[in-house]
Amino acid sequence: MNNLRIVQLQKNKITSVNKWLIILLLIPAFAIPQESDHFEKKNSILKKSVPNTKSTELGIFGGASYYNGDLNPASQFNPALTNWALGIVLRRNLNSRWSLRLNGMYGTVNGDDALSSSVAQQSRGISFQSKIYEFSGQAEFNFFPYCVANDIIYFSPYLFLGVGAFRYNPTTALNSGGQELATLNSEGVTYSKVSAVLPIGFGIKAKFSNRFLFGIEWSQRKTWTDYIDDVSTTYASSGRQRGNSKVNDYYSFAGATLTIRLGSKLNSCWHPNNN
């Protein structure tokens, strides 16, 4: 009976993942709605301008990281399962709508059956923690015509999608010196500790000045591994159900970015003399 409950929890995880992906994919369909008179006036000026918006930004990311998987099927931002995360951001703004970005991210994820409300999970009694090292490239789409030198529109919501790779290594959740769970070989499986990752998320960016820019964002990282938590199939010794191998684990980052525009030349977003 406990095994069936564990499998049902993983089905709930599928529903949660699909829900967020559907919401993110539908956003562009409504991303450029009928604009207010306020923005119509501003856009009338922008349409007369010559876009010259290429610029480069370098900065940092600070926020939180957490995981969803066999030990945490659906909970988001659980304080006991949310940890600090840091990163480095390099962004190349191609025009007022599109940007390319490179990320180097570091975070910690953890899970603990003892924190679950499910009796089945509590009786399983597994816990873990893992450091996450990620490198990825992403494309960003701005909903508004936004650039560093724009004196008309100072902010824009944005979506991003990318691809990358990350390294993980689940250990016992005692401390940073915990035992590597892969060495226990609980499921009789040898797995790679490096996997591909697909970041997808959204945020809002704004500028303090023509030099400093600020953003807040949330993203979910789809992975191609079910062993971030060292739990996937059955115990090698008894064949008893341990996890659900039909759904891979994933993790998320949420936080803020602070970037600085590089270079001394400031390209203009619009030219009022160009009528």
Give the gist of this structure:
The chain has 275 residues and is an alpha+beta fold.
Describe the structure.
There is one protein chain. The termini are far apart. With 275 residues, the chain is α+β, with helices and mostly antiparallel strands. It is built from three helices and eight strands. The protein has one domain: Porin (Beta Barrel), CATH 2.40.160.20. The chain has helices spanning 2-26, 37-47, 119-124; strands at residues 55-68, 83-93, 98-112, 127-142, 155-167, 194-207, 212-223, 250-261.
Taken as a percent bin, the fraction of beta residues is 35-45%
Poorly predicted runs are 29-36, 45-51, 270-275
What fold name stands as the CATH topology?
Answer: Porin
| CATH domain class name | Mainly Beta
Judged by helices, strands and strand pairing, the structural class is alpha+beta
**Strand line-up of the largest beta sheet:** 1-2-3-4-5-6-7-8
Which bin fits the share of residues in helices?
A: 10-25%
Count of individual helical segments: 3
Rough outline: elongated
Order of helices and strands: HHEEEHEEEEE
Query: How many discrete structural domains?
Result: 1
Average residue-wise pLDDT:
83
Oligomer: single chain
Rg over CA atoms: 22 Å
Q: What is the CATH architecture term? A: Beta Barrel
Distance separating the two termini? 73 Å
Number of strands: 8
The largest β sheet comes out as: 8 strands, antiparallel, barrel
